[in-house]
Amino acid sequence: MVVAAATACLVLARPASAHSDADDALPARLPLWQTTIVEYRWTFLTPVWIVEPRTYRARVTAPSFRTATVDVPSVEWTSERRKVARVAEFSCKYGDLLLPNACTTTWRDVWIDVPVPVVRRDSIDIDVMQWTPTEWRTTVDVPRLVWREETLVVSLPAVQK
Fold first, then answer.
1. Counting CB atoms within 10 angstroms of each CB, which of 50, 64, 95, 126 has the fewest?
2. What is the 3-state secondary structure (H, E, C) of the chain?
3. What's the pLDDT score for residue 1?
4. Whole-number Å distance between alpha carbons of 88 and 106
5. What's the CA angle centered on 24, arms 21 and 28, to 5 degrees?
6. pLDDT number for residue 31
7. Ordered mean pLDDT values, 10 residues apiece, the chain (161 residues)
8. What torsion, rounded to 10 degrees, do the Cα atoms 32, 33, 35, 38 define?
9. How far apart are CA 61 and CA 153, in angstroms?
10. Would you state the pLDDT for residue 4?
11. What pLDDT sits at residue 101?
12. Cα–Cα distance between 153 and 44 in angstroms, integer?
């Protein structure tokens, strides 16, 4: 009885899920998906600083120096020995005045050192400024903003059927 019931279940189940044999057949292999690389490109402008050297020139009157000698009279003090007076000097042979004495008078000169101004010529070397025309030049780095075209490329994998 068990075998008959199992057969009946098969028979009953078969019509409900019945398909044709062509529908039930599996393909020999599954369809392949193809992978590829897809590129995305964006082009945009970016600001870039560029430094350019510029030379400037001008004609200017600039000071220059030359050496000159200047004679300067200067006062210098020296000393000179000069006679200013005469002094009498008395001398006697005996020290007492009661006896006849032989006395003599001798004149002596008085000398002193006197400051005397003397004019001397000194020379001084100095730098004298004179104006001369010259050419002045300088180089200045000038920044400038430039817009540069940039391209961004992004490559991503993609799947196609």
1. 95
2. CHHHHHHHHHHHHHHHCCCCHHHHCCCCCCCCCEEEEEEEEEEEEEEEEEEEEEEEEEEEEEEEEEEEEEEEEEEEEEEEEEEEEEEEEEEECCCCCCCCCCEEEEEEEEEEEEEEEEEEEEEEEEEEEEEEEEEEEEEEEEEEEEEEEEEEEEEEEEEEC
3. 43
4. 6
5. 110
6. 66
7. 42 48 63 82 94 93 90 90 89 72 86 91 90 92 94 88 65
8. 140
9. 59
10. 43
11. 75
12. 12
Tokens of residue 140, six digits = 């200045």
- The amino acid that residue 93 corresponds to is K
Task: Identify residue 5 by its one-letter amino acid code.
Answer: A
Length of the chain measured in residues:
161
This prediction has a pTM of 0.31
Which amino acid is it at 72? Answer: V
Q: Amino acid identity of 156? A: L
Give the model's pLDDT for residue 11.
45
